[in-house]
Design brief:
Blueprint lengths: L18 E5 L8 E4 L2 E10 L9 E8 L5 E7 L3 E5 L2 E10 L4 E5 L5 E6 L4 H12 L2 E10 L2 E12 L1
Antiparallel strand pairs: 1-6, 2-3, 3-4, 4-5, 7-8, 7-10, 8-9, 10-11
Length: 159
């Protein structure tokens, strides 16, 4: 044994994976899939018949859940695809700062201050206008693959 000291730097997280494998043939419309390393909601699935040399193929058309871009992929139906863990959490809106960050109230009473206002213009104006009018607003935050974004708004009445 040597008397050298060894230091290991851990670059991994706690082990909760950002995706899980699922057979391509079992992924359906309105499900989720990873296309080109982006989490997407599946809007169209078509399956071709098995050819002379092999597998039936699934053609997926997905919309990126964060930026709305349309992505496509073709995968043999017997192969595994990555499916993102998608979570949706509702928070009450407390404040909007000048630099575009929002302050949200979590269920346990803490604040979450690391989210920006959404890039969707329609949703952005609804949030800003509702906040300016002093309404009680609840925003839905969708998270997948280490990204989070506000994607919906509910008005729960005046303060």
């Amino acid at each position: 044994m040597s008397d050298e000291e060894h230091h290991f730097e851990s670059k991994a997280d706690a082990g909760a994976s950002k995706t899980y494998p699922q057979q391509a043939g079992t992924i359906r419309k309105n499900g989720y899939i990873v296309i080109k390393n982006r989490p997407c909601k599946v809007v169209e699935v078509s399956t071709s018949k098995t050819g002379k040399h092999g597998h039936a193929k699934c053609h997926f058309v997905g919309i990126d859940i964060f930026n709305g871009k349309k992505l496509e992929d073709i995968v043999p139906s017997s192969h595994n695809c990555d499916v993102p863990h998608v979570n949706r959490v509702d928070y009450q809106l407390i404040d909007i700062s000048e630099d575009g960050f929002v302050s949200l109230l979590t269920e346990n009473g803490n604040t979450k201050d690391d989210l920006r206002l959404p890039t969707d213009d329609n949703l952005l104006t609804q949030i800003k206008d509702g906040f300016a009018e002093g309404k009680d607003l609840v925003v839905s935050v969708m998270s997948a693959m280490g990204e989070e974004q506000i994607n919906a708004l509910k008005d729960i009445g005046p303060k």
